[in-house]
Amino acid sequence: MKAQELAAGIDIGGTNTRFGLVDKEGTIIFKDSVRTTDFADPKDLVNTVSERILTALNRKQETVNRKLIGAGIGAPNGNFFKGTIELAPNLKWKSVIPMAKYFNEELHAPALLTNDAKAAALGEMQFGGARGMKNFLLVTLGTGLGCGMVVNGELVYGYDGFAGELGHVIIIQHGRQCGCGRKGCLEQYCSNQGIVKTYFEILKSENPHALDELDTDTINAKYIYEKALAGDEAAFYAFNYTGELLGYALANSVIYTGPEAIFLFGGLTQAGELIFNPTILSFEKNLLPVYKLRNKIKILPSSLKEDEAAILGAASLIWREEDKTK
Amino acid sequence: MKAQELAAGIDIGGTNTRFGLVDKEGTIIFKDSVRTTDFADPKDLVNTVSERILTALNRKQETVNRKLIGAGIGAPNGNFFKGTIELAPNLKWKSVIPMAKYFNEELHAPALLTNDAKAAALGEMQFGGARGMKNFLLVTLGTGLGCGMVVNGELVYGYDGFAGELGHVIIIQHGRQCGCGRKGCLEQYCSNQGIVKTYFEILKSENPHALDELDTDTINAKYIYEKALAGDEAAFYAFNYTGELLGYALANSVIYTGPEAIFLFGGLTQAGELIFNPTILSFEKNLLPVYKLRNKIKILPSSLKEDEAAILGAASLIWREEDKTK
To answer: Do A156 and B160 lie within an 8 Å CB cutoff?
Structure first.
């Protein structure tokens, strides 16, 4: 029988944990998910996920023997150097959790863990639109704003492992209060929560009581997107303002690492031209001319499917190590 | 006779070109300079500098044979990938000059060229306070503001070679007009020209005719420094404002590459505490808390002597390549 090598990709999110088995071409041959919030103890989540992965792996095959070469884990506040999740604001487990060690013990395979946005950047480089690129940025526009940066073909971790917290670049001094304790951070403007705040501000500026009639808890980027499509000017302007600030922030970001392309990923990018057009316009306007000399820096949507990217990104942690040892 | 390997270090500045011969411990065994502006044709500068370097190299030695292993060149708008100086605003040669090729031909040794701030960062890593560091920034505060960034032990060049143009991060939207065509760039505030503009603004805000009595062309950072020491409040406040913006910009910069330390270098740093104190205060205030978790990120003066750093930095281009091949 032939042997098929597979990597597990596990993405631990605030709401759901998605996981799967990925071959070296990036084909997901099994995928599943559980609700993260169902597990009061992270060890229980590890047990359940590992059991399902091993069951899928060992399912009787007629022509191939499957072999698990490792497990890659993406998680908010994931620390690559230590394999731990540290005080993630979106997870209810509040201590430092040695997640890589837990999975290593249950799966009997090497386990590597990284921050979710960094995993997404790895996935883009291994299986997506960044194949062959040595210098690029990937920005995730979800509830918050995350970033994975690749320089000279390697993810940038920095001295402490915390490089790339782009969501906390101060974009407007003395601006909106951020959860980090500072004011004016990028993710207070360019993210799901950011565009909702902008939309509310616009509505209130037109009518101080505008929010009284709305069920504000149900309003998210998707709602604003649908409003904009239906001709709501406030919603349209909210996307414009978000793109304008994002383009400005990306033009400043280019200066640090000189990327070939910037990939945008996550919820907000589903709005397509509504977010990409103002972002690109503002990016070009604010870009230092020297970066236009030879090649345009491209702003592109991630080429990975939204529901597969997280698993592929996490599995890339293993496939990249595998590539290096060859 | 013993053989002594030496690298030439050549720093081409807007006013002076400094050059020397450097051994692998960073000892400068010969140094000299010419006025850059004396040479209408860059080839004439190359000829003169090369002749003096070769004369020094071949001066009769009793106990050692000297061997030139290569020449490193630092220059404004230096392009490492092409070995060219490209449209440098501070140099009167306005075309694209293949400077590395010229020196290679005259010195009969390999020649490498890079941007002057990147050379300074290499010098700090090879011979200065950044020895052993894999992730740090060096910021030069001269006429303008330059930056060399080291990530994973390597200088960051980016896709086009233009990474690190920190002087052109927009720090104040719609701020001061910059020579690059955009507004609010960092070097319009945090540099020699920047602090002069700030000082003039403060004087004018106190008295609209304040500048009429001054010989404004002679005023530079050194003048403002001496004024501040003598108790001039406007001068003192100019340093405070410069440091406040610099600290804020550095706190934002940390987010991209997560450095272990930031080195400050060049004219403005001669003001010592007058510039370091407000910079560090603002840096700590604006820093994302996660970067304070384990170790403080240090803001330090360059440990290389002002008049030697440029030669050492340029020579480091050669010594680093030499180290790699061993």
So the answer is: no
